[in-house]
């Protein structure tokens, strides 16, 4: 019996056996793709398969039919010689065939890129197109993970398995079902595990960040998450939900089950929520948790602040005010903002200080975070799951949480110090910064620390410092660190218990139990509902966005850098915006003080094919005049005219011009009157009339020219296109 091996070439021989007709057809397709020739199936039935090479003159042929058992297939006749040319672009290599070859590889590497898929298919001697790669990749993923629509029907069974394998957890699924005659549609799901609940209540500070991120599947949706911080200041996810959108109603639903599962909470330490003030989040938790303290992400506040008051200086003072541990630094930063722009100061003064200013944070919480960046880190950590089907997304999050809890518990068991690694690293930096300070002893516990032009009082027994950092963060500041080092003590002894190894182990001591593979799920005949329809498909016009929209002050993505990040407005000339979004007055650009040479430099148009030798400095021959008469423009418009010629200067010069290309002149056809030519420039029209009398002088009548130059040319009476004599007046304004 023949067994296919990727590393070996497929070779047929007469009498070769195959398990059934499908196996023979599959091997035949692989053989055709490997050898690269067009195949024509003369007979393709369950009882016989006959195929030949479709190339002209090629004698290759194969015929197979079943043996006595009517199942096993055998090659009865075979002509192996090829006389055709090999072609790698074989029509047999369809996207379905490619998907079958990719299933095994993509099961181990589900995030394989298009280049990786192409490299894998080239092992079979195939050169796929981009569309074939796209289709084959999607078909392989659907084979592995299932389609997005079908995965919603598996959620009831998955929820039942969660209840059986993970006791004391919460899994709530909401359906949209107006009546019993309609199949239910998926609406929302909320999940949290007992290990997350106990880890948060026993090993984490009561500080939770909430955020939502869009899902990238065809049915959309939003992933709502709640993330805490462990003793190492690392993210500790405690709950998540998938909803149809992000608004006040969905967040209220989220907080309802959050309170049901985690409550009642300890009232000794105030529960603090960090949010971005968007889409009704803070309004929702104020209804469910009226006693909770709210913080607003300063990065989002700064983004809104910069959109109205742009400038690096204002932004730097904003962050100085937000991150200041004492009221003195805050007042100085706000005073600087007020001196620069009082409207910006009013904008920040309207926001409650307790939500964004570090110096008014609770000293009991021991958390000085002013941004919601740790929830953004969580969104980035689960980014590879955001485009998966709903069942793959939910179970993938469970698997990530399970692995992270066990991995960090193992890490905590290996710690030898009393504090966690990140806190120890931070203490090292603080001790180095304390070397620049100066200590003045007052008693064994009290010091006066000089830091530059300021001094701070430190009391180690009460663990306070005038700068405010010691009592708010729970970690010794550089002023307290100098006193501790002076007393020959260790800095870690003055850290709060929230940052110790014991609290770290408490957070990760519980486990999340695994779930069997979907193929091993038991049959649940009594489980309802049997079928769950996906939510309505809301497909927006245009190509779906994959990357998030970046803020105005964010840098470009490293994978897609911008060519230039500086904008200059063509209306007002300022930087930072363009002409379309300009709100200023247009800048009036005048040409009154410019010389003729400067004006001619900026003049649009095609210069002539030669220079006129008129004796005038910078004179240029232009072929914009009608007919065959060239026009000479002088750059000496700044010369003063003699008195008695009305501002004009008479210049007599012999001008011999060769006009061999007069028939190629552009513009309107020449006038029937050969003695008249029209000059058009800058929206004005000037007429110049030529006379046979060589001594007649004609002056320009243009009322715009500041200075006029009169040129008198002598020429014989018979005028032609090769020898031209005219008396013309040329204006300096173009």
UniProtKB/TrEMBL annotation:
UniProt signal peptide: none
Pfam families associated with the record: DBD_Tnp_Mut (PF03108), MULE (PF10551), SWIM (PF04434)
SMART domains reported for this sequence: ZnF_PMZ (SM00575)
Entry keywords, A to Z: Metal-binding, Zinc, Zinc-finger
Region of interest (Disordered), ranges: 532-570, 635-692, 711-734
Annotated SWIM-type domain residues: 456-488
Compositional bias of kind Polar residues: 556-568, 635-661, 670-679
The keyword Secreted is assigned to this record: no
Protein name: SWIM-type domain-containing protein
């Amino acid at each position: 019996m023949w067994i296919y091996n990727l590393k070996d070439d497929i070779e047929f021989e007469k009498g070769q056996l195959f398990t059934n007709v499908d196996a023979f057809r599959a091997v035949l397709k692989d053989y055709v793709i490997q050898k690269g020739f067009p195949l024509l199936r003369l007979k393709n039935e369950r009882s016989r398969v006959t195929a030949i090479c479709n190339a002209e003159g090629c004698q290759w042929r194969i015929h197979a039919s079943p043996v006595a058992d009517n199942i096993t297939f055998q090659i009865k006749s075979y002509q192996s010689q090829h006389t055709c040319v090999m072609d790698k672009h074989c029509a047999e290599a369809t996207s379905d065939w490619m998907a079958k070859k990719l299933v095994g590889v993509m099961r181990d590497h589900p995030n394989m890129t298009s280049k990786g898929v192409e490299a894998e298919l080239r092992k079979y001697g195939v050169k796929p197109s981009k569309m074939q790669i796209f289709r084959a990749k999607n078909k392989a993923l659907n084979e592995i993970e299932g389609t997005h629509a079908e995965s919603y029907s598996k959620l009831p069974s998955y929820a039942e398995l969660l209840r059986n394998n993970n006791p004391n957890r919460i899994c709530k699924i909401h359906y949209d079902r107006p009546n019993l005659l309609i199949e239910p549609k998926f609406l929302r799901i909320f999940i949290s595990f007992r290990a997350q609940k106990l880890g948060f209540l026993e090993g984490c500070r009561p500080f939770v960040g909430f955020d939502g991120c869009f899902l990238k599947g065809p049915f959309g949706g939003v992933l709502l998450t709640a993330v805490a911080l462990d003793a190492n200041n690392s993210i500790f996810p405690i709950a998540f939900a998938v909803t149809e959108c992000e608004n006040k109603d969905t967040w209220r639903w989220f907080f309802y089950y959050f309170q049901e599962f985690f409550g009642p909470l300890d009232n000794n330490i105030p529960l603090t929520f960090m949010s971005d003030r968007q889409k009704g989040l803070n309004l929702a938790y104020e209804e469910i948790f009226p006693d909770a303290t709210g913080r607003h992400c300063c990065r989002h506040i700064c983004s809104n602040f910069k959109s109205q008051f742009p400038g690096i200086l204002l932004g730097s003072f904003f962050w100085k005010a937000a991150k200041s541990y004492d009221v003195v630094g805050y007042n100085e930063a706000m005073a600087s903002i007020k001196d620069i722009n009082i409207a910006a100061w009013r904008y920040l003064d309207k926001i409650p200080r307790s939500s964004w200013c570090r110096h008014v944070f609770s000293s009991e919480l021991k958390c000085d975070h002013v941004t919601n960046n740790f929830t953004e880190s969580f969104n980035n950590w689960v980014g590879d799951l955001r485009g998966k089907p709903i069942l793959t997304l939910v179970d993938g999050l469970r698997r990530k949480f399970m692995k992270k809890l066990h991995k960090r518990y193992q890490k905590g068991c290996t710690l030898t110090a009393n504090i966690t690694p990140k806190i120890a690293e931070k203490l090292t930096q603080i001790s180095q910064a304390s070397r620049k300070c100066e200590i003045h002893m007052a008693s064994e516990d009290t010091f006066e620390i000089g830091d530059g032009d300021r001094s701070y009082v430190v009391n180690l027994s009460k663990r306070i410092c005038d700068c405010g950092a010691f009592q708010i963060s729970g970690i010794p500041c550089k002023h307290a660190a100098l006193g501790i080092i002076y007393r020959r003590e260790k800095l870690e002894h003055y850290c709060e218990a929230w940052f110790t190894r014991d609290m770290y182990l408490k957070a990760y001591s519980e486990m999340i139990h695994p779930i069997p593979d979907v193929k091993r799920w038991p049959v649940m005949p009594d489980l309802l509902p049997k079928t769950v329809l996906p939510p309505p498909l809301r497909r927006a016009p245009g190509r779906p966005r994959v990357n998030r929209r970046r803020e105005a002050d964010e840098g470009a993505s490293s994978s897609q850098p911008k060519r230039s990040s500086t904008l200059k407005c063509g209306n007002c000339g300022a930087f930072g915006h363009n002409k379309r979004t300009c709100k200023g007055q247009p800048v009036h650009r005048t040409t009154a003080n410019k010389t003729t040479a400067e004006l001619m430099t900026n003049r649009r148009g095609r210069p002539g094919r030669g220079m006129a030798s008129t004796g005038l400095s910078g004179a240029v021959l232009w072929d914009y005049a009608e007919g065959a008469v060239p026009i000479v423009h002088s750059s000496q418009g700044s010369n003063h005219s003699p008195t008695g010629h009305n501002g004009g200067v008479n210049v007599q010069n012999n001008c011999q011009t060769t006009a061999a290309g007069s028939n190629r002149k552009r513009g309107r056809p020449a006038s029937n009157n050969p003695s008249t030519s029209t000059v058009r420039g800058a929206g004005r029209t000037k007429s110049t009339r030529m006379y046979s009398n060589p001594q007649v002088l004609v002056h320009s009548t243009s009322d715009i020219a500041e200075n006029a130059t009169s040129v008198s040319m002598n020429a014989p009476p018979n005028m032609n296109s090769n020898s031209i004599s005219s008396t013309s007046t040329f204006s300096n304004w173009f």
